[in-house]
Write a structure and sequence with these properties.
With 344 residues, this protein is of the alpha/beta class. It has 15 helices and eleven strands. Strands 1, 2, 3, 4, 7, 8, 9, 10 and 11 form a nine-stranded mixed sheet that branches. Strands 5-6 form a two-stranded antiparallel sheet. Strand 1, helix 2 and strand 2 form a beta-alpha-beta unit. It is globular, with a radius of gyration of 24 Å.
Length: 344
Amino acid sequence: MLFLRPLVLLALLALTAQAAGPAAAAPQRETIRVVGSSSMFKMAASAAERFGRSAGVRTPVIESTGTGGGFKLFCGGVGFNTPDVVVASRRMASEERALCQANSVGPVPAIPIGTGGVIIVHGSSPATEAFAFTRRDLWLALAERVPVDGRLVPNPYTRWQQIGAHLPDLPILIYGPPPTSGTYDALAGMVLEPGCAEHPDVMRLLPADQLLTFCRKIREDGAFVEAGEDDDALARRVSANPRALGIVGFHVLEDVRGLEAAPVGGVMPTFSTITDGTYPLVRRLFVYVKTAHLGQIPGLSAFIRSLVSEDFIGPDGVLVDIGLVPLPDDERRAAQDVAGDLKP
């Protein structure tokens, strides 16, 4: 019977290890994890630093993943290995919400926190001062295929003046965001689609069910360069190249020197024109919180409340200092009510 004792001991050790394993593999996380928009990274980092100093908890960790990349991580499931918050430069898309539902993420309220603009920037020089775009101009410069002589052909335009005599005689070179960026989605929805629709030949040459895919398709011949998620880094590339343009968030004008914004539709992007909506490329900025993590991650509810506090997103708040535009009073109060009512 003695030979059984080592086997019994091994079995007991195995059971003990199994029982202890999950706790050892997944300890409770004590730091809030935020992912999402590169355009909102500066805002999120500022909020995290302020919260860490004042709340007596660890400073939240901020990861610039792009809005699309942030939603993918956020909707990957519930648990300490998934993010708690997404900062987003657009609303969650239907397929992203479906991913959240498929992974039992639970309610994920969208809380608006401010307004931003998508702008076209260039270096300051006499040649580039002539830039003034319509959305149709921008679509003709960016599109993979365009109408020429009654046919849809690969984009032949290599210089701006080929698109319109009102544009400078410079090569077309545009640094822009990758598809995972909320700025890219804004570009597609606010520039490519309406700019394409303004061209009468497109409506005539394509059936309605093909328009959306056609209008959003960007050329891949080098005229458009995916320059990464970081708006500031993209803008610095533009400032170093006097012939280049960049598609970035409005806040970049506060961060990078030597840049100017071009008017779109005859309207310059300014604090006032973005506030009143006369500038055509305006977007709402959102925070999404994983309610399943409320009560599990220390300080999460308080962090969300701090993000929508008056001293952060109000007319005299931090948001203004970093180049973003406050919500109207009624929308701001509604956002604060949502944040105050959050429950696990």
